[in-house]
Amino acid sequence: MNENIKSIAVGEKYTMEIVDITHSGEGLGRLENMIVFVEGALPGDVVEVEIKTVKKTYAQGKLLTIKENSPERVVPECQYFNECGGCQLLHMSYEGQLRIKSKLVKDALERIGGLKDLAIEPIIGMAEPSRYRNKAQFKVDQKGMGFYAKRTHNLVHIDDCLNQPESAADVIKTMNAVIKDLNLSIYDEKTRKGYVRGVLQRTNLKGENMITIIVNGKDLSQREAIVNAILAGVPNVKSVYVNINREKSNVILGKKSLCVHGVARIVEEIGDLSFSISPNSFFQVNSKQTVKLYDQIKEMASLKGTETVFDLYCGTGTIGLYLAKEAKQVIGIESVGDAILDARENAGLNHFENVTFYQGRAEEEMLRITKVEKIKPDLIILDPPRKGCEETLLNAIGDLKTPRVIYVSCNPSTLARDIKILSEFGYEVKKVQPVDLFPGTGHVETVVLMSRKDKNDK
User: Fold this and answer.
1) What confidence score (pLDDT) does residue 117 get?
2) Is the pLDDT of residue 1 over 50?
3) Was 201 annotated as part of a binding site?
């Protein structure tokens, strides 16, 4: 294209080649010095676009036609892909998705982290990249259940989701019928009135189901009829819960969950460990890949049985417990009280006596343990939320001069930012291992091993 950047205007049409893609699935092309984002376009596509918005450094284009297909372009198996906001990359071959995710990690570490000529291990993908999720949060309106459309609160009604187990279709069909037959009112976010707010399905590798109805009320109305319908319509139901959510917000789950049928927990097995799952539990949504992720962490940790491991942002304690057999002791720290209760339950479930969990802010509790209890870590595991670590925590790690750090991240950008800070304290990257936990989406998990340079430990 030879158009001058000043000529790019809203409503104008251009033909351009897509050269890259963002984690949110937007194709990226260039018109002179202007970056143009195009939803639905893939690297290698030649497309005609209509410019919808123009900013100082970028523009948004609407895809009109694909004049030349990318070699990575495929027909999505999901009939809802163009509407539903759950997946971003189903129109790309799985091999292409893996290459893109590796590139996202490498680009972030080089551009933000300042790590040049960095070797990244080949990404660990799935043999069968479908039906992998163990958790589905269905929204509901007067027409039925589904997921929100991209960047909206408009519901896309579905009969099935190819990311969920096959029993998800039974859950959708059953709950749609229950709501209609029992004339249950639907919660309206605008008026704050109505009863049913959503349905949560949790499943383990055995195919056991936990079904939670989220309501704006004090209890489960017409309990017996609802439970009987679920048991008749959904296979292998071990638990039925009601979750009480009367908050005036779009938070999915309320704080109180009541078991109205079956067992209080279902159990997931990761490796040779068992983990207790409740409606509110945090747990990785892809159990099969979680084993591969945790095996990478264990390999990087390379424990000999004499080490003290700090598991920060430990959630329900899964990573720390996965390492506990090979460590002298594991100390987990997490700010969410319910997660700590689950972590302690999981430690008991697996009969570990060398694991201790504390509730509190990671940076504060870590300093208290090291200064007051005089316990110092040989290895620190970091598994923060998408926003990354607090800088005060990274500074504290630098001051402690802990020999090794393993950083587990779901966000390449904040991972790279935090690694750059740690590198200023004398840490260097030894290994980077991407793992695909979310096929069909732009999300990628990354495990990074860092150790202090010898000269800084003298």
Assistant:
1) 86
2) no
3) no
Distance CA 452, CA 401 (A): 8
What is the model's pTM? 0.93
Find the helix packing angle between 362-371 and 391-400, rounded to 10°: 20
The amino acid at residue 424 is E
Q: Is 107 annotated as a binding residue?
A: no
Tell whether residue 445 is among the known ligand binding residues.
no
- Positive or negative, the CA dihedral 82, 83, 84, 85 is positive
Handedness of CA 167, 273, 386, 30 (dihedral sign): negative
3-state helix, strand, coil in the chain (%, to 5): 25, 30, 40
> Which positions are annotated as active-site residues?
410
- Is the pLDDT confidence value at 389 over 70? yes
Q: CA 321, CA 392: separation in Å to the nearest integer?
A: 26
Domains plus CATH for the chain? 5-68 (2.40.50.140), 111-125+284-457 (3.40.50.150), 135-270 (2.40.50.1070)
Q: What are the φ/ψ torsions at residue 35 (nearest 5 degrees)? A: -80, 135
